Amino acid sequence: MAKRFQITLAGEAISFWAEPELTILRASLRGGGGLLSSCRSGTCRACRCRLLEGEISYLIEWPGLSAEEKAEGWILPCVAQPRSNLLLLRPAED
Ligand code: FES
């Protein structure tokens, strides 16, 4: 069986699966998580979520986040791939 990770959206009772080569955004669109997106290239920040638990890696060297945001756990799911099971928190809508 192919390796895959479970991704859970905190506080929403939503989870979906992602193979390690899939971006978290693509997995959410396929699996019913429905994360917001626009550019899908790590620049617009529409997909921004906080990583509460787990490990990711990026497809690009410089995703559009400051060092402070990264330290706070913000990630860009459109250019991030899971490296473990993940617990994500999407920002509250204004
Ligand atoms: S969709 Fe634009 S940064 Fe993720």
TrEMBL record:
UniProt keywords, alphabetically: 2Fe-2S, Electron transport, Iron, Iron-sulfur, Metal-binding, Transport
Domain of life: Bacteria
Cofactor(s) this protein requires: [2Fe-2S] cluster
Record-annotated 2Fe-2S ferredoxin-type domain positions: 5-94
Pfam families hit by this protein: Fer2
CDD domains, A to Z: fer2 (cd00207)
SUPFAM superfamilies recorded: 2Fe-2S ferredoxin-like
Record carries keyword GTP-binding: no
PANTHER family given in the database record: FERREDOXIN, FERREDOXIN-2, CHLOROPLASTIC
Family under the similarity heading: Belongs to the 2Fe2S plant-type ferredoxin family.
Name assigned to this protein: 2Fe-2S iron-sulfur cluster-binding protein
Organism of origin: Roseateles oligotrophus
